[in-house]
Design a protein that fits this description.
The chain is of the alpha+beta class. About 20% of the residues lie in helices and about 35% in strands. Strands 1-2-4-5-6-3-9-12-11-10-8-7 form a 12-stranded antiparallel β-sheet. Strand 10 and strand 11 form a beta hairpin. Acetyl coenzyme *A (ACO) binds next to strand 9 and strand 12.
Amino acid sequence: MAESKVGDICGSSASTTSDDHPEETLDLKPEDGDPESPEAQKDQDLKSVLVTSVLNLEELGVDLYRGTHHWVPRSQRLFGGQIIGQALVAAAKSVSDNLYAHSLHCYFVRAGDPKVPVLYQVDRIRDGRSFTVRSVRAIQHGQPILICQASFQMLQPSPLQHQFTMPVVPPPEDLLTVEELIRLYLSKPDLAEKYKLGLNKLLANEVPIEIKPVNPPVFYKVTASEPKNLFWVRARGYIGEGNMKLHCCVAAYVSDFALLGTALLPYPGYRAQFAASLDHAMWFHSTFRSDEWMLYECESPWAGGSRGLVQGRLWRRDGVLAASCSQEGVLRVKPVTRPSKL
Ligand SMILES: CC(=O)SCCNC(=O)CCNC(=O)[C@H](O)C(C)(C)COP(=O)(O)OP(=O)(O)OC[C@H]1O[C@@H](n2cnc3c(N)ncnc32)[C@H](O)[C@@H]1OP(=O)(O)O
């Protein structure tokens, strides 16, 4: 879980263009043609940092890769979404082009250390007729920090097809990004210095995701709300058509952002003293573009025993359910002490 306050700001509250059979390459290099041409350079400049850096693993040997870090939460633990996204990239590298990621299940077993890279060791568990399964260990200091199983399937259409209905919310064009909301808050003439400091720290975050909360909170007015949360999300920069495995990796990165914080919404009288994702499961239902706005619907059906369960659904703008996820996290809280009025 990302512990940044962005989660608090978001807290309160496909592919429409990709065809149904995107070519299945995981080519993370610039498009073909002259890499020095102005178009290729422009494309490279626009390319999302998620593609050029975060999800661009270095191959060290057969089924062994190394990933670098981009954005690290204030907790100085590696962002879980980055480790999941990189693990899925590593798993996908040994899977043929006609197979699509349809699910992954992960445990976060140790905190990630932002001072050293992460190694990804892939185990080719099975290559079946329709399904292929990979197991990935993300390793630092010789110990696993994440264990992940991912499954890929060839396209197999079926007459059995249903989904929930996408929530009705304002379109992203009618909403403000987190950065715009922060600037709005900072423009308040009577804003206390301590809030200015925190908000400017947030603005300095180089989170490679754009977020538009559907129900942004009244600034620092902490009121209890249902453990439900809606926001529009998309990767910053351009990723382009096809590359469906890559879009799944970006969606895996996005899906862990501000998710666990949903479980804290009914308890404004408490703040997280220690919060971290324990596991993360994800299912991919349809093609989508992670560099286009998608609605992220989050809810927490249960919390207890210093843990919280949260679930998320990523919707394409045309109402198609693109992906679902579930996560349990540790939530150790302490009461929020407010200055006495006396
Ligand atoms: C930033 C993100 O995106 S989080 C996503 C990634 N997820 C993670 O990083 C979690 C990785 N997993 C882990 O770190 C481990 O498996 C844990 C922490 C979940 C469990 O490991 P355990 O050895 O059982 O830890 P334990 O529960 O005893 O204590 C762990 C932490 O909780 C803290 N803690 C323990 N009890 C309490 C308490 N009552 N109140 C507050 N903090 C507490 C400890 O100080 C310790 O913090 P530290 O690791 O920063 O020193």
